Amino acid sequence: MADELVTIGAFSMLAGLSISALRYYDDIGLLRPAExxxxxxxxxxxxxxxxxxxxxxLLREAELSTEDIARMLDGDASAARAVLxxxxxxxxxxxxxxxxxxxxxxxxxxxxxxxxxSAADFGLAAVNIGVDSDAALEIACGFWxxxxxxxxxxxxxxxxxxxxxxxxxxxxxxxxxxxxxxPQYGHKSAFGLGVVGLDEAHQRAVTAGATEHYPPTDxxxxxxxxxxxxxxxxxxxxxxxxx
Length: 243
Prior knowledge:
The protein is of the alpha+beta class. The chain has helices at about 10-15, 20-25, 50-60, 65-75, 75-110, 135-150, 200-210; strands at about 5, 35, 45, 125-130, 155, 160-165, 170-175, 190-195, 210-215, 225-230, 235-240.
């Protein structure tokens, strides 16, 4: 029976996964069918794949990404433990935030309305960097991705963006190719970023291609800071915001 093949519909019921999910997991290589009919394109699965499929479903219910699920199922035990530990930490933090919100809502129901925060209470920042070509966009995204340790997402229309932080401390970095008919065409930005570990962050910037204006320096009117220009010509000040 282990070698018997079933249709995608039957396998969907056995695994508890939708047909669309099974097709997607096939496309990304997470759960390939045992056989695909070369003439009709119909997928067939074996009973031996049910266990993997059910594990995929459970891990998705635990809100793991498909990349982390692949590490869990195909990597070694240490990689799987690291994925679970990281996800456990993320979910615990989220649970804490939800409990705080529920407490605030409970106070509201008891006649003690929660106070809405003013704009001054938020650390929201949106930084927009303009470049003048697709080539400059790739260079800028490569630089900032290397410095921040992230990959900027393609938002279309010559724009890439990354979200940094979360909650009240959320911020956005957007890099976009500006057209010649825009008033901002050719404009460069100047902005500051608070970092934990100024010396290390500054050195990463220089290594990634920044032009150093001055190294980490103690200032009289601001925290210890440094300054450089990124490859797109934007002036950036980093200051020590950590302990």
